[in-house]
């Protein structure tokens, strides 16, 4: 009997011990999950140009700006509707007046009060011709910004301005600390009201942000955010695989299958607003000749390029894309189709035979792929094309100065409004700044102007569709693809949501 009792007692103890071990293991796993460092490293192939919303206009810089600064309004990524952010509400007493009430009790990261004076200061600087803000066109119709009281600002426009709320939701319209801008250089040490504060910038290597513990909506979960410059995307993919970085975006098609095979990585994609294109310098010959541009348009097989994107892009002839206000489905196939014989005929008839051209591209993977494909296709129709590549910041300066013949660029469409695509990029007002192609067409300009001054959204859409058609006929841009925005991130990263513009914010992100 005693042996049986001892046997059953031993079995009981073993089962009990196993149960405790299992429970303990579960507690340990739970604790381990909660102890994941609240740090996130994002890999970017290019460094930021600057960190001031007033003084920059590129997507890499905007990635930092969107974490540090905030705008008066924001666009809901699900509904695409404009909603108040730093603003509390607004009203329009007349068609040229916008009275905006601001949220109270908010401070900049340097302790400066957010108020109407800060908004006025920011927008006055943004519109100052001497400061020459690259995206000053966002507020081009604004006549004055006045302080009504501590938390009310009144914006007067020279004429009705339909896209104003969309413009005020743009990253470059973020509100800056007047103190920081007056006393320092916010292009290298930014100060906003956002959930993350600037800590350090080692140019060419990394930018580090830390959480803003006094953030007005409550401090974020992430303690630190690092934007790591990794020039080769393949290297960044390897770093994602080993856990050295936890987040990549704008996935090149050639890396998609490798990333999707990683068991600890999530991939997120959605139809987006960005458009990527081949453009011409209209102030140089023969690129100012519509027949030459048409020949190039016929020579470029954009579907062949899109087929290599593995679902990360779509072919569409329209300059205004499907996710952007003003899009017309009829424009999808209304451009110049791929037709080698037609291209050769135009080249021969107009004396473009053996024409030498230089294709300028930034040294990032997608733009270089475009350049290589177009180079091959132009060679096929008798155009001798040479590729010149350069670093992103230098590329932006070079194209802004007009020192190119043909180039590849993209536009994020951060406002998702066609007016804020066509006006900055192709309106003659902006030749020498954001209109890098130096395009000038009076009929086009008039239609775009009307699209900005009308308040009736259906009427605005019609004007945009007409302007879009003119630009397409002029072959000012040859759209290479409209984007499917993408991101890859470690499975420990929770709460990351891509905007259709490809932008992202890290306030709601945590690691588990």
UniProtKB/TrEMBL annotation:
Xref: Gene3D superfamilies: Dipeptide-binding Protein, Domain 1, Dipeptide-binding Protein, Domain 3, Periplasmic binding protein-like II
Lineage: Bacteria, Bacillati, Bacillota, Bacilli, Bacillales
Organism whose genome encodes this protein: Sediminibacillus dalangtanensis
Membrane topology reported for the UniProt record: Lipid-anchor
Highest taxon, organism lineage: Bacteria
Signal peptide stretch: 1-17
Regions crossing the membrane: none
Keyword annotations: Signal, Transport
Name of the protein: Glutathione ABC transporter substrate-binding protein
Keyword Signal set for record: yes
UniProt-listed InterPro entries: Peptide/Ni-bd, SBP_5, SBP_5_CS, SBP_5_dom
Subcellular location: Cell membrane
Parts forming coiled coils: none
Solute-binding protein family domain residues: 81-432
Family per similarity comment: Belongs to the bacterial solute-binding protein 5 family.
Pfam families: SBP_bac_5 (PF00496)
């Amino acid at each position: 009997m005693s042996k049986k009792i001892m046997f059953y007692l031993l079995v009981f103890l073993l089962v009990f011990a196993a149960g405790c071990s299992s429970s303990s293991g579960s507690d340990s796993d739970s604790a381990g999950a909660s102890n994941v460092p609240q740090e996130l490293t994002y890999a970017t192939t290019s460094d930021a140009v600057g960190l001031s919303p007033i003084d920059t206009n590129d997507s890499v810089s905007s990635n930092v700006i969107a974490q540090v600064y905030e705008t008066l309004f924001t666009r809901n990524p699900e509904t695409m509707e404009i909603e108040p952010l730093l603003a509390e509400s607004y009203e329009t007493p007349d068609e040229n007046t916008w009275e905006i009430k601001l949220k109270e009790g908010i401070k900049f990261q340097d302790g400066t009060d957010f108020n109407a004076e800060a908004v006025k200061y920011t927008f006055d600087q943004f519109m100052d011709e001497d400061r020459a803000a690259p995206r000053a066109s966002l507020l081009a119709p604004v006549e004055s910004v006045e302080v009504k009281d501590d938390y009310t600002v009144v914006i007067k426009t020279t004429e009705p301005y339909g896209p104003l709320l969309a413009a005020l939701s743009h990253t470059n319209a973020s509100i800056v600390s007047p103190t920081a801008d007056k006393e320092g250089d916010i292009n290298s040490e930014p100060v906003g009201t956002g959930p993350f504060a600037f800590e350090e910038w080692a140019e060419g290597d990394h930018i580090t942000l830390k959480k803003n513990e006094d953030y007005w909506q409550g401090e974020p979960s992430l303690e630190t955010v690092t934007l790591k410059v990794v020039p080769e995307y393949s290297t960044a993919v390897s770093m994602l695989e080993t856990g050295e970085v936890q987040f990549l975006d704008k996935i090149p098609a050639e890396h998609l299958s490798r990333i999707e095979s990683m068991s600890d990585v999530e991939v997120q994609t959605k139809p987006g607003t960005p458009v990527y294109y081949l453009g011409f310098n209209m102030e140089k010959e023969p690129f100012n000749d519509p027949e030459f541009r048409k020949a190039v348009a016929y020579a470029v097989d954009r579907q062949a390029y899109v087929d290599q994107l593995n679902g990360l892009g779509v072919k569409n002839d329209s300059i205004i894309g499907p996710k952007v206000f003003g899009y017309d489905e009829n424009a999808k196939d209304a451009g110049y189709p791929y037709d080698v014989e037609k291209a050769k005929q135009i080249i021969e008839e107009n004396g473009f035979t053996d024409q030498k051209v230089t294709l300028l591209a930034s040294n990032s993977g997608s733009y270089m792929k475009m350049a290589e494909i177009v180079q091959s296709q132009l060679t096929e129709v008798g155009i001798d094309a040479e590729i010149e590549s350069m670093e992103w910041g230098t590329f932006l300066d070079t194209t802004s100065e007009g020192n190119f013949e043909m180039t590849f660029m993209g536009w994020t469409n951060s406002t998702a409004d066609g007016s804020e695509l066509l006006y900055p990029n192709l309106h003659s007002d902006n030749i020498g700044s954001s209109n890098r192609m130096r395009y000038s067409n009076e009929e086009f300009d008039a239609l775009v102007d009307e699209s900005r001054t009308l308040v009736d959204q259906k009427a605005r859409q019609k004007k945009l569709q007409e302007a879009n058609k003119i630009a397409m006929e002029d072959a000012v841009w040859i759209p290479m693809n409209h984007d499917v925005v993408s991101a890859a991130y470690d499975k420990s990263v929770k709460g990351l949501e891509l905007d259709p513009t490809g932008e992202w914010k890290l306030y709601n992100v945590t690691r588990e």
